[in-house]
Write a structure and sequence with these properties.
Strand content: 5-15%
CATH architecture of the domain at 140-274: Alpha-Beta Complex
CATH superfamily of the domain at 140-274: endopeptidase domain like (from Nostoc punctiforme)
Distance between the termini: 209 Å
Largest sheet: 6 strands, antiparallel
Number of helices: 6
CATH class of the domain at 140-274: Alpha Beta
Order of helices and strands: HHHHEEHHEEEEEE
Strand order of the largest sheet: 3-8-4-5-6-7
Mean pLDDT: 76
Oligomer: single chain
Length: 276
């Protein structure tokens, strides 16, 4: 027996064929797995690369944030401008309304002042005419008294042209008074006198003060049918009528009475003229 007979050999024991086959299968599977993973690796890497490229960068995020802030600032500025414009428009409308109200009040005040002044002027004119008529009537009262008594005691008959004038004047009694009227159914005082004298073939002026300036002045105590009576001064008369005899006259008085026949003492005339 050798000296090494009891020393174990360090050589690994030979593995059985079955174990070797199993190991070979495992190794083959591992290698196949590695091969498959290696083949798939480029596709996955490409996919990851693509996804990485699609992700926003920090610079683009900053730009988007700046754009959003700018848009918000512009919107705020526009809103402020709109509010300021609306405030200005409201102020302008209020001022315009206030100015219009003030102008209307001023116009109404002026119109009222004009109406008041017109009324005062008309009142002064009426007072002046009344005073003139009173003065003239008082001055002729003495001559009228004698005329009234003589004409009342005698019956005067119109003849010739005077009869035609008197007949025409009486035929118009009851017609309307219209300022500027010259017939046939409405008259003013001078229009009636002019038309009556036209019946006798005599053309008289149209205006009362021109008619009273015609012919010859006669006393109120010596009137004859057909004479023209006037109120006011002879060259400035404001009313005329026709003496028809018997202490009466016919004239277009005013819109409320029309053409009427009156006694001389109802409204004594200032004077008379004889044109025939």
């Amino acid at each position: 027996m050798s000296q090494t007979a009891h020393i174990r050999s360090h050589r690994k024991p030979r593995q059985s064929a079955s174990k070797l086959a199993l190991r070979a299968g495992v190794a083959g599977g591992v290698l196949s797995t590695i091969a498959v993973a290696g083949a798939a690796a480029p596709a996955n890497a490409e996919s990851v690369t693509e996804k990485t490229l699609e992700m926003p960068t920090l610079g683009s995020l900053d730009a988007d944030l700046a754009s959003a802030v700018s848009a918000s600032a512009e919107a705020s500025q526009q809103e402020a401008l709109d509010q300021a414009l609306a405030s200005q428009e409201d102020a302008a409308l209020q001022k315009a309304a206030k100015d219009a109200k003030k102008a209307k009040a001023e116009a109404e005040r002026k119109a009222e002042a004009e109406r008041a002044e017109k009324a005062r002027a008309e009142a002064r004119e009426r007072a002046s005419r009344t005073a003139t008529r009173t003065s003239l009537s008082a001055g002729s009262s003495s001559s009228y008294s004698s005329m009234s008594s003589s004409s009342s005691s005698s019956s005067q008959a119109a003849t010739g042209s005077a009869a035609s004038i008197v007949a025409f004047a009486k035929a118009q009694i009851g017609d309307a008074y219209v300022s500027g009227g010259t017939g046939p159914n409405s008259w003013d005082c001078s229009g009636l006198v002019q038309a009556a004298y036209r019946q006798a073939g005599i053309d008289l002026p149209r205006i009362s003060y021109e008619q009273s300036s015609m012919g010859t002045s006669v006393s109120l105590s010596d009137l004859q049918p057909g004479d023209v009576l006037y109120w006011g001064s002879r060259s400035g008369s404001y009313h005329v009528a026709i003496y028809v005899g018997g202490g009466k006259y016919v004239g277009a008085q005013n819109p409320s009475t029309g053409v009427v026949e009156r006694d001389l003492d109802w409204d004594p005339p200032s004077g008379a003229v004889r044109i025939l």
